[in-house]
C-alpha cells in the first residue's frame, strides 16, 4: 500500500514543528544563563545583530547592554539557518 502525502499537511506540520522549536528555544534562553551566538571566521557573532567579537566576554557584555530587551521570539522566527 502506497501512502500519498499531501503537501498542505506537510507544510502545516513543518510550521507546527518550527513553532514548537521556537517556543522551546525561547524558554531555554530566557530562563537560563545561556548566551546565544553564531561562529564565523574564528569570531563570535552576536546572535541578535551579527557584530563580530574575538573575546566571548566582550560578546556577553555587548548582548547584556545592547539587547537586554530584544524580542527573542521575533529573532528566532526570522532566523534563516
TrEMBL record:
Keywords: Metal-binding, Zinc, Zinc-finger. Residues 44-72 form the C2H2-type domain. It comes from the Eukaryota. The keyword Hydrolase does not apply. One of its GO terms (molecular function) is zinc ion binding. This is C2H2-type domain-containing protein. It comes from Pararge aegeria (speckled wood butterfly).
Amino acid at each position: 500500500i502506497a501512502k500519498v502525502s499531501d503537501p498542505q499537511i506537510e507544510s502545516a506540520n513543518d510550521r507546527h514543528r518550527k513553532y514548537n522549536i521556537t517556543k522551546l528555544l525561547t524558554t531555554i534562553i530566557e530562563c537560563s544563563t545561556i548566551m546565544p551566538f553564531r561562529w564565523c571566521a574564528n569570531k563570535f557573532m552576536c546572535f541578535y545583530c551579527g557584530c563580530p567579537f574575538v573575546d566571548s566576554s566582550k560578546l556577553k557584555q555587548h548582548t547584556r547592554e545592547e539587547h537586554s530587551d530584544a524580542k527573542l521570539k521575533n529573532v528566532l522566527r526570522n532566523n534563516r539557518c
